[in-house]
Amino acid sequence: MYEPGGPERNYTGGVLRAPAERACRRPPRRRTRSLRARVVAGGALTLALIALLTAVAIAQVTVSGTLETPTHLTAKTHYILYYLQLHSGASEERFAVQMTPPPFATIGGLPEGQSIDGPTDIALQGPGTLGSTVQAPSAIVPCSSRTSAFHGYATGVASVDVLLPPNSATVLAVRYDTGRRAPWVDSDFKLQFTIEPTLVGTYPATSPFAAGATVTTASSLTTAGPLVSGPTGAHILLATKPRQAGSDPYAPTAIKAGGTVEVGGRLLPGKAGRQIVLQWSRGGALHTIAVLHTTASGHLPETAWRPGAPGTYELWASYPKQPGGLLADSTSCPLRFAVG
Question: Does 1 reside within a domain?
Fold first, then answer.
């Protein structure tokens, strides 16, 4: 995660001093050029402005969100550039910008990470000063020992302090990595920006941030995400009876010895006649419960599964390689059951 209270960074002639590297990453990232270099040179990606949100007045700061990215996100897209347009009034303004990635979910309300990871770079394109960057802890506690099955990242909310001089117009540019596996069609990749009436860093008396925040009202807006096109992963959403519940999404659901779990769910996008393999494990090899075929709407026929001896079981679903345009994929996090 980024170090709290890091050095202040000015936008000076295109020199970007990147935030401190995060201590915990998952998985390793490939090296890329600086954010400004990519914005100026373009590189392999053709940047196209695809969204401009209505301006929102916040005290003397006016903000509007834009997203520049390939119009169609594919499995070959390795990062997305997001932009937030900032305009100050007659006075200097100091505030924090919070960036919240959209979550993935195995089933409704059961989070397993985000569709983007970062930010990996932050810069101001125009006048202004960046202060401290704080990265909220990532969800690094694995939901299973099978880490190779993770589809997306689990990154936290990031915040950066911003100082704008009077009567200025500038752009906050942030870069996020995308997953290395084929995207899911229902992952929108929208990034929420929130202007916070506070600062996240602690500054000495000589700092231009020392006087504190000037913005007094929080407000949020969300970018329009890119379209997911090209090869996509099969997104399997499972539902069970008894259903997974509780404040800890990975805590096992208790069932009695000899009890039965009813398993259903659906495939996104909804395709008919596709194979879905249900499997279980108890800390070792995977064992097949059934090979199911989706209905016309992409739903799975309900299947009864009866775990054996007492212990903690993981329930997995996977989409094997098969004709039809969807790439092989699996649920990122298994559903867990404790048989007692």
Answer: no
Which range marks the domain in which residue 113 is found?
9-228
> Pairing relation of β-strands 72-73 and 227-228?
parallel
- Phi first, then psi: give them for residue 39, nearest 5 degrees: -65, -40
Residues 199 and 284 reside in one and the same domain? no
Q: Which two tokens stand for residue 297?
A: 């709407």
Nearest of 311, 330, 69, 337 to residue 182 by alpha carbon: 330
Residues 331 and 193 both lie in one domain: no
Cα 300 to Cα 239, 245, 284: the distances in Å are: 10, 21, 26
Tell me the β-bridge partners of 21: none
**Cα–Cα distance for residue pair 197/124, rounded to 1 Å:** 19
State the Cα–Cα distance between residues 90 and 69, nearest whole angstrom. Answer: 33
Run of H or E residues at 228: strand 227-228
178/114 Cα distance (integer angstroms): 9
Looking at the fold, whether 23 and 59 belong to one and the same domain comes out as yes
Structural contact between residues 317 and 266, judged by C-beta atoms closer than 8 angstroms: no
Give the residue from 195, 228, 261 where a domain finishes: 228
Q: What is the pTM of this model?
A: 0.73
pLDDT tens readout for residues 152-190: 777 789 999 999 999 999 999 999 998 777 888 887 888
**Are 20 and 57 contained in the same domain?**
yes
